[in-house]
Amino acid sequence: MNKKILTLILLQVCIGLMYAQVGIGTHEISPSAMLEVKSSNKGVIFPRIALNSNTDKITIPNPSTGLTIYNTGLGDFKITGYMSWDGTMWVKLQSEDIQAPGVSGIQCTGASMTPSIFKAGVPYEGIMEIPYVGGNGASYPAGTAIASTGNTGLTATLQAGILQQGNGVLRYTLSGTPLLDSPATAYFNINVLGNTCTAGVSGSLVLEIGSFITFSGIFNTTGFAGNSQILLSSQFPDQLPVIDGLRMDLAYYDPTFYFPRIYNVSSQPQLISLQTFATEVNQNRTALNQTITTGGFIQVDIDNTVYWTTVYAEVITSNVQVQVSPGVWRWYEMKWWAMQTDAQNNYSKTIFMSVTRKA
Question: Does the predicted TM-score (pTM) go above 0.85?
Fold first, then answer.
């Protein structure tokens, strides 16, 4: 009997301790505190964690909202200090004298999006990134949705984050159902951290090195007038190869000749260089550091015209460099092969195109 009584007493004590306040270094605990630590010469060390991003949920699986740690900066997330999980991201705990978030400038012309393709009428979910310079390391709140113009149906919403000390990117959640296919541009009027500009994203496939895009189709030129320069894209508006804002195309000249062209379908001028050679005639063209304005084009052949008859059907190959950002270039090999496949119908032209990323 005595053992049973002792067991009951110990159980009651343990239950009491489970729900009791805890004091370390003191017996006088504040009524509002579950834990009070008192010391005149020591502090409290929180767990020191090496986070890999401000949304890292792997290093600490399923973090609870309000969880607090000290980020060491030894992982991929380099900002050090006390961090609290707000339910979606790690937010640095700031003191009152920390300066307001600020940047020297934002670069809307460098806006990019991931995934890189819009499809008309198909819901899109992705990220738009806008570079900034001169960040001061402070945290900033999420923004409100900004509706797109041009290619309508989309919204961009600034994600909360922490500025880099120097240069970095602002991330926007990009969502909605676009009216048009890429590369039609969606424009957003950005007003953030005291800076305003218009960001445009159009979407363009980024090929891996060695990957390619092809096109084949029949170009019906019946009724075309001489030198009318009607474009292949007038009959195939969405099917022609588009890469880094450049569209392969061709223009009708007459039943014997056509013009191979490269069009800029992006929202910004494009700086390119090209070297072209043909298989049937010994003609080459070199055009270096050429700026193509939005909607403009560059002729690929040295004298513009290329055969597409049953007698001569040249393969035109153009090596093209395009500047995708300051100091960053990509090299593509573009080929055109157009021919009359029906000897009795010189208005029906079979068109082949391909673009391969070389570097």
Answer: no
Closest by alpha carbon to 308, among 238, 184, 221?
A: 221
Residues in the chain: 359
Assess contact for 54 and 73: CB atoms under 8 A: no
307 strand-pairing partners: 257
Report the b/e string of 2-21 with b at 16+ CB within 10 A.
Answer: eeeeeeeeeeeeeeeeeeee
- Cβ–Cβ under 8 Å, residues 47 and 69: yes
> What is the per-residue pLDDT for 320?
97
In 3D, which of 286, 284, 233 has the Cα closest to residue 263? 233
Q: What is the DSSP letter of 28?
A: -
| pLDDT value of position 284 | 87
Tell me how far apart the 2 most distant CA atoms of the chain are, in Å.
115
Query: Of 235, 263, 266, nearest to 151 (Cα)?
Result: 266
Q: Measured in whole angstroms, how far is the alpha carbon of residue 169 from the centre of its chain?
A: 11
How high is the pLDDT of residue 96? 46
What 8-state DSSP symbol labels residue 308?
B
Closest to 219 in 3D by CA, of 182, 247, 246, 258: 258
CA 253, 256, 261, 263 torsion-angle sign:
positive
Residue 263 · residue 245 · CB < 8 Å = no
pLDDT for the residue 226? 83
CA distances from 13 to 10, 17, 31, 85 (A): 5, 6, 20, 35
Compute the half-sphere exposure of residue 238: CA atoms within 13 Å on the CB side of its CA: 8
**Bridge partners of 82?**
70
Q: How far apart are CA 134 and CA 102, in angstroms?
A: 8
DSSP string over 260-284: EEEEE-SSS-EEEEEEEEESSS--E
Q: Could you count the other beta carbons within 10 Å of the beta carbon of residue 87?
A: 9
Q: How high is the pLDDT of residue 197? A: 94
Residue 2 CB contacts under 8 Å (≥ 6 apart), including other chains:
none
Mark the ranges of the chain whose per-residue pLDDT is less than 70.
1-20, 94-98, 183, 204-206, 267, 343-344
Dihedral angle, C-alpha 85, 90, 91, 93, nearest 10 ° = 70
C-alpha–C-alpha distance, residues 26 and 21, integer Å: 11
